């Protein structure tokens, strides 16, 4: 369960939260299983937070810092993650159905067994991202940077992914 104090500070807004994060850099926020459906978290520094099993469906995380965040079994369906930093995030078994991840940093993000069906990853950086056993049916990889065919080979429905990046080859 989410730490009540962390949840309370999060609900005060981006300025207070980011200042608290700056002043308490040693704290790894615990927002496990929090109901943040539809929350406006644009620009929030959630780096390294525990968001496993959290409900972030329809949340707005525009340009949020989510590096090294644990999203294990979280619900991020229909979530706006445009320009967000998810580098080194752990998204195993995460629901990203129809999520908007365009212009996001997904470097070394782990998407094992995640549902990325109909997600939009246009113009994102996916260097060494891991998609094994992920559902990428109708996922849009248009213009992605650093996408190697080997990254998608073990994903489910890789033949139905939208791959129109310059130089991209179907796995």
UniProtKB/TrEMBL annotation:
Pfam family, one: Pentapeptide
Xref: InterPro entries: 5peptide_repeat, Pentapeptide-BTB/POZ_domain
Cross-referenced PANTHER family: BTB_POZ DOMAIN-CONTAINING PROTEIN KCTD9
Name of the protein this chain belongs to: Pentapeptide repeat-containing protein
Organism (species): Leptothoe kymatousa TAU-MAC 1615
